[in-house]
Amino acid sequence: MNIQRLLAIGLFTLLFSACTPEVGSDAWCVHMKEKPKGDWTANEAGSYAEHCLL
Known about the structure:
- This protein is mainly α.
- The protein is 69% helix and 0% strand.
- The longest helix has 16 residues, at 2-17.
């Protein structure tokens, strides 16, 4: 039963972690542009400035 649970959690994590576009890609820049600025982390703001503005 535990192995099935671990496999389910791993599959769930894999499926939903693949939904986020790669940092610096055009899709990621569009996603960040639409995301409220108050919800950005410091790392996201720095990456946005580096990859999308410059």
